[in-house]
Structures are given as structure tokens and as C-alpha cells.
Specification:
heterodimer, A: about 475 residues, mainly alpha, B: two-stranded antiparallel ribbon, two-stranded antiparallel ribbon, 39 helices, 4 strands, about 70% helix, about 5% strand
Amino acid sequence: MPLETAEYLLALPEIWVLGMACLILVLDLFIRDDSRILTYLMVQATLVVAALITLAVQVPEPVLAFGNTFISDGMATLLKLFIYLVTGMGFLYARPYLQDRGLFKGEFYVLGLFAMLGMMIMVSASHFLTIYLGLELLSLCLYAMVAFNRDSGTCSEAAMKYFVLGALASGMLLYGISMLYGATGSLEIAAVASAIGAEEGSSIVLIFALCFIVVGLAFKLGAVPFHMWVPDVYHGAPTPVTLFIGSAPKIAAFAIVMRVLVDGLGGLVADWQGMLVILAVLSLAVGNVIAIAQTNLKRMLAYSTISHVGFLLLGVLAGTPDGYAAAMFYTITYALMAVGAFGMIILLSRAGFEADELEDFRGLNARNPWFAFMMLILMFSMAGVPPTVGFYAKLSVLQAVIQVDMVWLALVAVFFSVIGAFYYIRLVKIMYFDSPTDEAALQSNPGLRAVLSVNGLAVLGLGLFPGGLMALCSAALL
Amino acid sequence: MTLSLIIFLPLLGALLPPLFIRLGRTACAWSAALLAGTALAILLYHSPAVFAGETLVFTQPWLPALGLNFSLRLDGLGLLFALLILGIGLLIILYARYYLSEHDPMGRFYGMLLLFMAAMLGIVLSENLLLLLVFWELTSLSSFLLIGYWKHRSDARQGARMALAITGGGGLAMLAGILLLGHITGSYELSVVLASAELIQAHALYPVTLALILLGAFTKSAQFPFHFWLPHAMAAPTPVSAYLHSATMVKAGVFLLARLFPALSGTELWFFLVAGTGTATLLLGAYHALFKHDLKGLLAYSTVSHLGLITLLFGIGTPLAAVAGVFHIINHATFKASLFMAAGIIDHETGTRDMRRLGGLWRFMPHTATLAMVAAASMAGVPLFNGFLSKEMFFAETLHAGWMGEWSWLLPLLATLAALFSVAYSVRFIHDVFFGTGPRDITRKPHEPPRYMKVPVEVLVALCLLVGILPAWTVAPLLAAAAASTVGAELPYYSLAIWHGFNLPLLMSLIALAGGVILYLLRFRLFALHDRIFPLCDAKAWFECGLARTIAVSHQLTAWLENGSLQRYAMLLVASVLIVIGTSLWGTTLTGPVAMGTVDGVTLTGALVLGVSALATVIWHRRRLAALVLLSVVGLVVSVAFVRFSAPDLALTQLSVEMVTILLLMLALYFLPQHSPAESSTARRWRDGLLAAGAGLSVAALAWGVLTRPLETISGYFLEQSKPGGGGSNVVNVILVDFRGFDTLGEITVLAIAAFGIYALLQGLRLPSPTTDGEGRPWAEDRHPLILSAVSRPLLPLALMVSLYILLRGHNLPGGGFIAGLVTAVALILQYVASGVVWTRERLPFDYIKLTASGVLVATLTGVASWWFAHPFLTSTFEYVQLPLLGKFELASAMVFDVGVYLTVVGSTLLILANLGKLTLVSQPHEETK
């Protein structure tokens, strides 16, 4: 089948990022350490141009390309833009951290770009193999990034665990996909959907396929009981990497959940809804309850991620357009909050001091009231307290769940949110009421400070005017 | 529009005081006061319409998709609360101007106070329930900031966190309740919700909805069993406690009860939940208040008790009770705010709030003492003060409460008891502070506070008196308007007169007054008694105990789920997968309609051998050599099985792969111990065994399910297309090199990369050659037995010939590049084994790396060549040629591809095996890496 130029045009953002990633990989070899900033600037420029290209080539109606393996639609455009944004912020926060520790190398950014390419492919996939390719590209980059600080034992251990479990989960996902092929005769998402729709009931192979696919997706999302890697990896990885893993990939994971479960396996909704209910409830329960006992902030945020994934799943399992839009809104806003929270850890850290213990935030209000306030906003947003954006995310998800008469599920979610509120508030209390033990100055990088402030204010601003983003989310799903 | 200004003035104005502080402290206070004053003026401007019975509504869409609108509503209830918030707020601003010391950052204080004020106004003016919730939580946030402002007070920490945890949690519960309310009525607008009482109360979700909303209200208004946060929040500075914890924030809960009164009240459930909680709080608060030695502690518990009283009134559910409730809200706000401010003055002037150290202050500050006495009398319910009026109404209502049946005497009794305590602690507040002996251990000499610090107290106390003496002329219209919008229907007749004749409520009042004084006189004996029983009923201790339990559970869960062990994680992962599969398969029929075929003896024997040797491998896996032998049996049986099912290609491949792998393992085993040590415990082995069995069984179930169902195979297509499309009659080979050529290209690339990887890993690695095996037996001296090398040499050309034959015939008959490559590799490896590395390298000077790379290159170029002819990548073509001697011969481009496969396989296999084979120092007497 001959490929048309128009098809390449649709994938221009991906092609651009791929080309630049390769180019920067090579150019970086010729850049001396003291002018490494050039690499960084090229990477950020790549992101900006990618965003412009994405906007320029967006299409009003969904268009398939490359033999129905690639799709360009509203959801892809919106999610890609947020992936660029979050990734760019992550790169920005990472720079002072890496510079202080002598880790400011081109590899970090190139791996990050390739990981982002993987996410873009996931977001734009309309074929199970495309999804798998994107996912693996992302995962492989992440494994390497977790082990980025090669001299650190915890980093290597985290990377090893992540890799072994991740490979296991990937295998299961692939196993599921192969069974799906056996059952439906195709791997194109639309074809799979119509094959399932044409079938009476669900065959045993389909159920097997669904189980393995859900397991694979749940692992990538970090939903209980497939969450074991999350705390160890979040804790073990260098903070900028944790920041990266905890933010943009969640958006991509949401996208593949939508593509696979809703678009592809929508006919099996009765089967996967029950599975997601269990995953969501377990995630909410385990995430929130275990988070209470954590003394390490990165670990606490890891469990908080798990509980947020529970909420995200609630939106998806509602099975209505409102629910999907709510879940998308939740994912995007969560990514923004997560970036900010890990950015705060970077702000407080310096060479030889990671600032990832809760105790390290003691008396932040006395040290720097402005950033204490930013962290307060972020924590309140994660807890779901208005007028921060986290409230609207929770509100819309809960509404979607109640609309489909799953009231008990909403109550469970609220119950565990109350528990969750406790540990976010504990951090706020530590910042505001305890006296500081560490008097050193915070990171002074002006870019970091400015973007962190914008980040915090955005969480507040989106809380005051959430209508725009919410409308974008609903429109993207049409 | 101007309605929203009431909220926005303080909200946006919150930024002003921090700026105005540069102009001085007075300017700063003025800026805050002006904003609040303007908002109050706007409110008053709208009040005539409200008094006329109108409800002003302003709507601005905000987030219509979620049903959240910025819609405001000003009715009697809202007006009353807004007046309290703004009026008392203004007084607090004045008071705080003199209370705050020079080094307190006043600008921030006023900013946060205004923010809090805006949030409170938002609650009472919201028309939309979700908007109400937004402001509700905003009060939590801003109050937290206000309390956190005095961070040097260490006792404030626990209190503030507990307050926030409880009210924040309650707010989330309320969110769920409001969502349910919206679900039932279809709208979050109050005008709709309030008009759908019947719909709501008949709905199946009514109990849940009610419980959740009440959770929100009770936590905010410090009702039992959540009452304990309020007294512990008293570490905040006095202006904050006076404003938040007496007049405004804690009133938000009872405001919500009043607000939703028309929609939710009137059911038995409402009565028992609300009135029950109210009664418990009323009694508990009144009891504890008497035993607090801290002035503010006493006031805090008294606030708890009065809030309970109001809750109880709303719980009774009659319109008259609601009127009494609203009335008591007004009265309580006035006398309690003035008492807090008086307590603040005393603290400010003496430096202590402990009533055991205070006393006799009448001599030093008679003016303040008089003010406090009036307010306290109002709190005690002494006639001619405003507290008396609402308390009388309260007593009257307890007498008429329905639902209680024959227990109806209980409520008045409890009410009188609580009132008795209330009188006792009011007397204590006055007598212990202003009279008697003392003060003791006071560092400075107390005197009257600055003039303007007393003004707010004076204003409030004057209100207490005015309302108490002339109710009909002062409070009546406001009460009527507020009560009318609370009840939502025509108000019943009620009288605000001071004297109703000698009736039962008056008798209850008198009993309470007399009993309270007696109780106060007995206080020292009671204190001793209380100290003995108090530890049993400290709800804060329960809260902390519950917290500790939760944390303990959390730690246990962590230890079980996240112990850091990868094995544990993998176990959980696999177990979860098994559970997921097991539950989804539960109830499905596994066996399909296809009947079982017959089993012949040979197949059965093969299957048995396969099963037994697989099992034996597992059982003897610690004896490595034995396990290896058994494993090769498994491999061989599998290749025989391929023959049995007419798949000669697979059989050949399996056979040669088997040999190569066994060789590889033998080479590795040479350096390793003969036995694997047992590292895991027996229990763990059983656990893993079960998991493995589960995984095996589920795959078996899948196979069973698939095989017993009719199946449309895809082989027909390939059988048809093989000859015309690929030019070969060996379908397997055609698939490999043509239909799925891209796949094969990928595979050989992976193989090559793996070989290079192993080469790179082994580079420079030199191991000492073991002289004995694992059991201590020495290895044979003769490294290259003569017979083996003699036999192997003539075998080589034969093997090469066979492999060439297999390669060439592959397209039409069983064979192909992959098998041929393996046969060649095995033949060459045999030379290494038989004659040693050095001997073989001299005679076989190939560079295996180049060989591997050239294989991949040839295969790729075959693919690229088809582009030359404007066909997609890897399109194959074939032609028949007439060769002398051999006759008609078919040449397919795919055969070139197959040669590429062949070269890659030979190169990679030899690269791996030859490098593994020369690891020992012995095999390399002189460094021959070059």
C-alpha cells in the first residue's frame, strides 16, 4: 500500500520529535560539558516547535493513517499538547537538580524525548501494535532514566525492579493482544470493536484476552494490585525522573485506556467495568491507607498517585461521555499537580541533600512563605479542597459515577478521600506549624522559581476558572 | 450584580491591607474596615426588599457542565447571617487593631481575615449548593491560615491540624451528600432543592444523603462526637476565636441545618439524628465547660453546648422550634463574641487565662467587669437579657417535641439539666475572675484596656440588653424575615414578650438558675470528682487513638505489600493475575462443542514421556546435570511430536536448536557447581509451586477451551497462496522468507545483536579452568581425545554438504536457511570441541562478527532490492532456469534472503559458542585474541 504525503503530515509532530531526538543525540556528543545548556535549549525548542506543529496539523474530524495504525483526533491533539507542557516543565525543574549533582548530561534529555515520543505514539495509536510499540518505547526509556544515577544503589535497585516487573506486565499485555487477534482476526482498534460487536456474548478467548490486557494496563497505570513497582520506583529514582514518571506518562496511560477499553473493547464494557470497579476501590483503599504511614514524601506521593489512579478509573468505568471527560480532566490536572509537588522537592533539595522526607518540609512557611503557600495549594488540590482544581476533578468524577447510579462507589471514594485529606494536611501542618530544622537557602534558579510559582498559581487559577479546560476535555472526546 | 460585590469586596480587598500596612497600622485597619463597611452598606441597601419578603437572586454561569453556577441568593436567613458576619467582623477589625502587638504582621492578618469573611459571606449568600460547598471549604483553608498566623504557639499545632482534618473531612462527606441531593432533584440550585422536600424524603437515598450532609454540618459546628476540635482550636489569638469560633465559622453548620430545613426536616430520621446529636452536644458541652480552668476553654465548651442547643431546636423540626433556633443564633453570636473579647482583654491585661490564678479583677477593671457580667448573664439566661428570651422559647419547644412517645418527659429534663450547668459556668466565669481572692502570680498590674478595645464589647453588650428588654422593637423584623425563609412557609404565631405568665418554661428557667448557683457553690467537690472520671471520656484521646490504629494498620499493610522484595512483588502480581482470570472465568462453560478425537498408543506414550520428564526436571532441578539431561529429553520428545503432527521443518529446527542449547548449557555448567543450593524455605516453595500450577492450569484451561471449539484455521490461505505467491511448495519456509519476511528479518537482527552482546560481555573475561568437577573428581587429562578428533574431521565436509542441501531445497521441501545454519554451526562446533580452539582457529580463520553482519546485510539488501523494481520492501520474485545436468531449476529472490538467514545463524551461533568455549586460561596458552 503506497503511503501518501498527507499521512506523513498527520504524523509530523512524531516525525519532528524523532528527528530532533536523533539529531540532539548526535550533536550532544560534540558539545562540551560547560556548554551543555545548548542541548537543553535545543530540547526545549523541540517541544515548543512540536506544540506548534501539533496545532498546525490538527484535524477537525478523526483521520486514520498508515494503514489504520495511526489516528489523529481531538483527544490526541489535546493530550499531546499537555504532554509537551508537562514534559517541558519536568525538564525545566530537572536542570538545576542535575547540574548540582554532576548529572547534567545529554542522555537524560534524549531519553526524555524518546520517552515522550513513545507517549505521543500511544496517544495517537489506533492499532494494538502501535499502542504496544509506543508503550515499550516509553517504558524502555523510563527504565534507563530510573537508573540514571549509576552510582546510586537505590536507583539501580529501583530500575531493576521496575524492569523485571514491567517486562512481566508487558508480556501479559502482549499475550492478551495476541489472544485478541486470535479471537477477532484483527488488531485495528475499529476492526476489533466491530468484530466484538458482531459476536454473540463473549467467547472464552476474549475473556482471557481482556483479563491480560486489563492487567497490563493496570500495571502501567499503577492500580492496585498491580502497583508494587510504584512506591519503590518513585522513591528510588532521582527526583527529576520521579517527576517525569509521575506526570506525563499518566496522560499517555489514560489515552491507551481510552483507546483500548473504550474504543476497542467497548463491546465488553459489562466485563471490564467490574474489573475496573475492583481495581479502583482497591487503589483508593490501599493508596490512601498506606500513604498515612509514609515518612518519605516521594513515597507518600507514590501512594497518593495510586489513589488518584483509583479516581481516574472511576471516571472511566462510569462508561459515559461525561465520565470519560471527567477522567481526562482528572488526569491532566493530576499531572499538573504532580509536577508541582515534585518540583517543590527539587526546590528544597541541593547536592547531597534530597529533601524528600516529610521532615525536610518543617517550617517551610518560616523559610519562604510564598513557596509554602504554593505547596499548600498543591496539597489542597490533591486532597480535593476547593477552590483548587483538584476539587473540580473529584467533583466531576463523582458526578459521573452518581449519574450511572453507582452511589456506593462514590461513597467509597469520598470515604477514602477523607483519609487521604489527612496526610496532605499533615504536610501542610508540618510546613506551617513546625519550626524549621534546615535553614539553608532554597534552590535559587530563577526559572525554576518562576515556573513553580506559575505551576502553583495554575492549580489555583484552574480552580477558579475550570470551565475552559473542562470544555476542551468534553470537546476532545466528541 | 451588587449582590456579588458583597462577597467580592472583601475577597479581592484581601490584598489591600498587606499593601496599606506601609502607611501605618491605623491605615491598614481602616482599609480593612472600609471594605467590610462598604459591603455592609450594600447589604443594608438591599435589606428593605428582603424585609418585604422578597428573595433576591443573582445568577452567573460558571461551570454549567457540572451544574455549578455562581448564583447568589439574599433572603431573610442570608441577610441575618451576612449582618452578623459583617457587623461582628467590623467590631473584630477594631478590636484587633489594639489587640495585635507591634511586631505582629498586621497586614497579613487583616488580609486573611477579609478572605475568611468573604468565604463566610459566600456560604450564607449561595444559591447554588456546589458554590456553597466551595465557600465552605474556603473557610477551612482561610481559617487554617489565620490560626497558623501565630506559629510560635506550639499548642496551636495539634489543634489546627485536628480542626482542619475534621472539618475538611466533613466537607468531603458533605460534597457527597450534595451530589446525591443534586442527583435526586436534578439541580443544585437551592430554589429547586428547597421546593422538592417530598421528592427528597421519599427517595431511597434520603437516609444516606441526610447522613452525609449532617456529617458536614456537625463537623463544622463541633457537634458530638466531633465536638473536641473546637476547644483545641482555642490556641488561636482572641480576635480569631471570637470571630471564627463563636460568631461565624462554627455557625456555618447550623446555618446549613437552617438552610436545608425545608428540604430535609420533618422526618423521624431527621429528628433522631439531629435532635439526638444536639442533645448530646448540649449536655456534654455544658458539663465540660464548668470544669475548664482556662477562660477560653470554658467559653469554647459553652459554645459547643449552645451550638448543640441550636441543633436540637432544628432537630425538633417544628416551625416554632426553627424560629427559636434562629433567634438563639442571633443571641449567642452577640453575647459569645463579647465574652470572647472580654476574655481577650483579661488575657491581654493580666497575661493569664487560668481562672485558678485570676480573681478580684473588679478592683482593677470595673468597666470591663460590668460588660462581661451583662454578657454572662445573657449566656446564663437571666431575664431581661437576650439569652433568656431564646432559652424560654427553647424550653417551650422541648415540651412539645413529637416522636418521643412516652419518653417525651426526657427532653425537657435534659434541657433543664444543661441549662443548670450553663448557669453554673456563667457564674464561675464572673465570680472566679472578677470577685473572690486574687489575682495570684500575675506579673503585671492589671488595668483597663485602651478605650477603643472596649468599644466592640460595649456595642455587643448594648445589643444584648436592647434585644433582651425591647425585643419587639429591635430584633423582631429581622427574626421574622430570617425565620420565614428558614421555615419556607407561613410562620406560626409566636410572641417575643418577656413575660408569658407563670408557666412551665419559666419554672424550668428558675430551677436552672437556682440549681446552677448551688452547683457553683459545690464546685470544688465536683472538680475532684471530675478529675477522676474525666480521662474516660476525652474524645480527643479517642481521635488520636483511632489515628494511631489507622497508622498501625497502614504500617502492617505496608510491611505485607511493600517489603521491598522483588519476589514478593512478582508473587503478588502473578497471584492477582490468577485471581482476575479465575473470577472472570467463573461460571463460563469451558468445554466447547467439538467432540474428543481418539488417542493412539504412540501419541499417548510420547505425552507420558514428556510429562514425566518435565516433572522430573522440576523435581531434580538442583542436580544440574541430571536436570539438563531430562530437559533434553523434553526437547527431543517435542521434536518427535512435531514429526508426529507432520511438521518436519519444525522438527528439524527443534532438533538442531536443542543440540545447540544443550551445548551452550554444558559449556556454562563446566564452570559452575553441579548442584543448586536450596535457598528458599519449604513453605515458599509450596507457595511458588501453587502459583506455577495455577498459571499452568489457566493456560491449560485456555487451550482446552480453544481446542474444544470449532476453529477456522488460517492455514488454508497460506496453502493456497504459497505456490503462486511465493514460488515455493514448502509453506513454512515461504511464510518465513516471504509472507512474514519482515518478521524474520527482525528476528535475525535480534539474534545478531544478542550474539554481539554476549561477545562484548565475554570480552576480556578469563576464568581459571576447574581441575575437578563439583564432586571433586578430576577432569580427564586428555583434553582432545584422539578418536573424537579423528572421527570429527571427515564428518565436517559431510555435514557441510548436508547443510547446503537443506539450504537449497528449503523453498520446496523441509529445510531452509535457519536449519541449515544450525547444522553448519553444530558441525563447526564439533571441531572446536574435538580439536581445541587454537587448532580450529588456525584452519577456520573467519571473522564471525563480519559473517553475522554480512548475513543481516544480505537479507536487508534483498528486501531493499524490491524497491528498485517499485515494489514494497521484501517483495519476492522467482524465475525458472534451465541448468545443465540438473535440469529445470527454480530461482527465487527469497532464496538469497534465506542465505542471509543462514549466514547470520552460523555467525551468531559460532560467535557465542566459540567465545564461551575459550573462556578458560588453558585453552589460550598464548593470547590469540588478535
